[in-house]
Amino acid sequence: MPQQAADLVILGGGSGGYACALRAAELGMSVVLVEKDKLGGTCLHRGCIPTKALLHAAEVADHARDGANVGVLSQLIGIDMAGVHSYKDGVVSRLYKGLQGLVKSRKIELVAGAGTFHAPDAVEVDGTVYTGRNVVLATGSYAKTLPDLEIGGRIVTSDQALTWDSVPQKVVILGGGVIGVEFASVYRSFGAEVTVVEALPRLVAGEDEFASKLLERAFRRRKITAKTGVRFTGAKQANDTVAVSLESGEELEADLLLVAVGRGPNTTGHGYEQAGLAMDRGFVTTDERLRTNLPGVYAVGDIVAGLQLAHRGFQQGIFVAEDIAGLEPAVIDEAGIPRVTYCDPEVASVGLTEAQARERHGEIETLTYDLGGNGKSQILQTSGAIKLVRAKDGPVVGIHMVGARVGELIGEAQLVYNWEAEPGDVAPLVHAHPTQNEALGEAHLALAGKPLHTHG
Ligand SMILES: Cc1cc2nc3c(=O)[nH]c(=O)nc-3n(C[C@H](O)[C@H](O)[C@H](O)COP(=O)(O)OP(=O)(O)OC[C@H]3O[C@@H](n4cnc5c(N)ncnc54)[C@H](O)[C@@H]3O)c2cc1C
């Protein structure tokens, strides 16, 4: 078999794989990046970017519908899905082009094809073996479904929902996690009747309970029905409808069923098991430096158990490139990775939930600042709150926010958490008025014992 050698061979060109390739090339390594579909992976083509474009279109629809609330006479006449898709696809294709240019400019060898992990130092693609001193596995994840629930027709995952050519009148969403609530938000803004079914007792169950409560309240106001603590038992398609049955005996009729029950690691069929790679429930097992059990072989992104987020993949990719280059980067603190759910209202957090902080730090203090006291939030007509969690007399260990656009506040929040700031360190920092950012400043002022615009 023909052979080609490089310093580094990367299997998978999504967020984790391409970030690793870019950083490794910057550090002077020769890099082969193997991608069977499109450079950019899930995030760029079927995840972060297209869904956020839909959410932006949804926001515009809400503004058109609600213009009269601020004295602007406007009307939502309808949603032209072809127009929405062309806007969304335009965003994706511009970023795709930019990314291709970036990879080319760093002289990374992009190999198109499905790769098989052959040996700890080799990946085979269509009969050519690419060897490297190091190999990074970054094959990503896929949308899961439930046993006996076949995807097809009007039963879709986020992959098909992203190209659906009409707005459903009634949609049932199975799963109240990040992807489920983001789509719920889009469909509702586009005018659909939306029901979210979640087996766990609350929406966005990975977040602090405070955030779930506020989101559920806001969804109720938006007339999005959330059925939590309810199990799905089956779905049947007939003509133009899907009948969804629940354990409670209830049956819901919809014209679309979106299955958003999580994402599984894409680790089968690439030779991982045959090569002796250690795995646990399908995820590749790594140590905190992302090293697998095989010498010189690393894994990054959604195939490594933990938060399935693009920026985690980027950071892991950068980390691995630097580790290989001997720069000894600091281990990534998983809790320090910011998390944003871009539904309306947004949910954003970093650090520990109150329950986790109690477990880790024993005595803690919390403070909740209502966005009702924040001028910019009033202008935007959003409600919500910011909750801070600190270790008793110590640093802020968790920040949780709910409200329109609070995702934009996560930059400062993550600095506070990752720099282990105490409320007293943040309190003297001036926040511009009127911004929503001010609410974060006010929350720290209050927790430092000198509240400004805080009642009681
Ligand atoms: C609907 C949706 C919305 C999301 N929104 C957000 C968001 O707003 N923010 C956020 O941070 N994250 C978001 N995510 C998650 C984010 O997309 C993933 O965490 C991220 O893409 C993971 O990167 P990765 O590199 O591990 O895998 P992927 O991006 O999945 O990339 C893996 C790549 O490997 C390739 N590949 C697989 N097997 C082979 C093989 N044998 N040979 C060659 N190539 C192969 C695939 O084609 C793919 O391109 C979202 C995901 C979805 C589905």
Summarize the model shown.
With 456 residues, the chain is α/β, with parallel strands linked by helices. It has 13 helices and 24 strands. It is globular.
What structural category characterises the helix and strand content? alpha/beta
> What would CATH call the class of the largest domain?
Alpha Beta
What is the residue-averaged pLDDT?
97
Shape descriptor reads: globular
CATH architecture of the largest domain: 3-Layer(bba) Sandwich
Subcellular location: Cytoplasm
Domain Pyridine nucleotide-disulphide oxidoreductase dimerisation: 337-443
Enzyme class: oxidoreductase
Domain FAD/NAD(P)-binding: 7-317
Which tags fit this structure?
456 residues, alpha/beta, FAD/NAD(P)-binding domain, five-stranded parallel β-sheet, 13 helices, 26% strand, globular, binds flavin-adenine dinucleotide
Q: Could you walk me through the main structural features you see in this protein, from its secondary elements to its overall organization?
A:
Its cofactor is FAD. The active site is at 433 (proton acceptor). Disulfide bonds join 43-48. The structure is a single chain. By secondary structure, the protein is an alpha/beta fold. It folds into three domains: 3-142 and 264-334, FAD/NAD(P)-binding domain (3-Layer(bba) Sandwich), CATH 3.50.50.60; 155-261, FAD/NAD(P)-binding domain (3-Layer(bba) Sandwich); 345-447, Enolase-like, domain 1. It is built from 13 helices and 24 strands. Strands 1, 2, 3, 4, 5, 6 and 19 form a seven-stranded mixed β-sheet that branches. A five-stranded parallel β-sheet has the order 8-15-9-10-11. It has a five-stranded antiparallel β-sheet with strand order 20-21-24-23-22, with helices on both faces. Helix 1 runs parallel beside helix 8 (310-324) and helix 3 (48-66) runs parallel beside helix 6. The radius of gyration is 23 Å and the shape is globular. The chain starts with a strand and ends in a 9-residue tail after the last helix. Bound molecules: flavin-adenine dinucleotide. Flavin-adenine dinucleotide binds next to helix 1, strand 2, helix 2, helix 3 and helix 8.
